[in-house]
Amino acid sequence: MSTINGLPAHVLLVHVIVVLIPLTAGLLILCALWPAARARLIWPTAALAAGVTVLTPVTVFAGEWFQKQLGFPPVVDQHARLGHQMLYFVAPLLVSAALLVFAHMRQGRGKPAGRAVVAVIALIAIAAGGAAAWQTYRVGDSGAHAVWNGVLNH
């Protein structure tokens, strides 16, 4: 994917990612800690987790194309390196969502997961959500610095 309506696809997709990854992370943590929220929000949250897991490599691919079009400027290198790591941060969101779906479905069948199991899932969701949100910030910050302090100044 190279352009959308004449604009670099990466520039547009990145805005979707910057919103959806922290939203997904927050919803996962909420679902992990609050059973009433899990009952209402786990399915949309799981769909968001799957969506960002698919959209992340698409965004990275579009970024690689855009970087090539810019002539591989050195100021973009750090952003590209961090962006390539992003899938390692969104995949745990998907795993956490799957674990929460499992706990939710067991609860619905009258076989609730034990408190220790739910606590472990909550810890995984908190760690995955926090890490994904932090990495999203790092990637976005490095991209903004590359644009405002680098590419546009040349």
Automatic annotation (TrEMBL):
<protein>
    <recommendedName>
        <fullName>DUF2231 domain-containing protein</fullName>
    </recommendedName>
</protein>
<keyword id="KW-0472">Membrane</keyword>
<feature type="transmembrane region" description="Helical">
    <location>
        <begin position="41"/>
        <end position="66"/>
    </location>
</feature>
<feature type="transmembrane region" description="Helical">
    <location>
        <begin position="12"/>
        <end position="34"/>
    </location>
</feature>
<keyword id="KW-1133">Transmembrane helix</keyword>
<keyword id="KW-0812">Transmembrane</keyword>
<dbReference type="InterPro" id="IPR019251">
    <property type="entry name" value="DUF2231_TM"/>
</dbReference>
<feature type="transmembrane region" description="Helical">
    <location>
        <begin position="86"/>
        <end position="104"/>
    </location>
</feature>
<feature type="transmembrane region" description="Helical">
    <location>
        <begin position="116"/>
        <end position="134"/>
    </location>
</feature>
<dbReference type="Pfam" id="PF09990">
    <property type="entry name" value="DUF2231"/>
</dbReference>
<feature type="domain" description="DUF2231">
    <location>
        <begin position="6"/>
        <end position="149"/>
    </location>
</feature>
